[in-house]
Amino acid sequence: MIDLSLTEIATAVSGRLVLGGSDTAETIVNGYVDTDSREITPGDIFVAKPGEVTDGHLYAPKAVQAGAVLCIVERELELSVSQIVVENSVVALGDLAREVITRVKALGKLTEIAVTGSNGKTTTKNLLREIFSARGETVAPIASFNNEVGAPITFCRATENTDTLIAEMGASAPGEIRRLIKMAKPDVGIVLTVGLAHAGEFGGIETTLRSKTEMVEDLGPEDWAVLNRDDARVASMADKTKAQILWFGRGDDADVRASDVETSIDGTSFTMHLPGQEPVRVQFAVIGEHHVVNALAAAAASHTQGVPATEIRDALERVTRAERWRMEVLTRTPLTIINDAYNASPDSMAAALRTLAQIAAPEQRTVAVLGAMSELGEYSVEEHDRLGLLAVRLNISQIVVVGREARALHLGAIAQGSWDGESVFVEDQDEAFEFLTKYLGEGDLVLVKSSNSAGLRHLGDRLAEHYA
Hints:
A 9-stranded mixed β-sheet has the order 9-10-8-11-12-13-14-15-16, sandwiched between helices. The chain is 35% helix and 21% strand. β9, α5 and β10 form a beta-alpha-beta unit. The protein is an alpha/beta fold.
């Protein structure tokens, strides 16, 4: 974080300063900001956030022991360090982030790139980080820090030397992206997709569309809206923004596009086309054609900032995986296991199944281990059923459906014509592990895919350890 005095922080968050130890009102603080006491290091700021399960105030003493020099709290605590007492610690965290970004931006060198979408945010963020880190100091979210807590924690990491800030912006309700935009107004806003991910929480696809549109509504004429030409809902945002528009996608009508796409177990290669530049061939180690669109989004945003096509290509080729538990190849022998169980939506589940079918060698057995897609609400049964149908039509050799919430997927596969054990249902990952270790054989190609809440990412790791 930038240098700020205790008084400046208290003013920014509208809080009451309680000095501790030898501190004065002008004592400077510039460490990281976090709500997790386990992540605190000497010089950091701990924000005590009340939660649904526990209360962050209970962990303030541990944060101080770990080296926190300031605690932002909702009630005054008996601590040996300074505190700032606020009405709402999450709001205060956002206010602090806004102050940091405002001051850094005033220096005139910071470029902010924000990305949202129902799928692909984290992958695109990682690709952008790889591209811009080669050009200067770049701040990007850890893991999927994209909500009202994670995003401002990332914003607060900006310093006077930061050249590029990459923000991943998710939402579970309308208005959340707009609040994040007001904390750190981006120069480039990327919208990847508008799909059924979180549709249950939003209350429908049209509400999801309105929420994602918040990304581009407040952009100015000097800013860029980087939009997915292939997604009709994203394309409809063009008349909702004052920003300059750069289209990306697989079609010929996109400004940034890919041609001659080839997918294998070793990754995905494609020819990348950028406006005004010679096409370049990209050997992208990330598996799956659906990740090509994420690469194009990152390339388009980079193009708006003057990054040459060859430099973008070199950065993309340095990336070996989208993210932990995202189309991650865990083993190659005696069989291949792809763990894509960090998150799942109908679109990403379908893309993963298609990739499994595409990269399989002739006569190679394909096994799809599938858990529930969460947060679909009233669409849950219909979408799980549809994925079961797709898995059968793709001629997946063996479908293993894990957990009651995903049972409709198994029933959909059976209804489509999967019988004689081609689709099996198991109650939990232990039962799945027992079945798979008996069923799997040398040369099999295995995909493990589910939402994070289903816990199947650990099943993928267990299988990898078993066959290592």
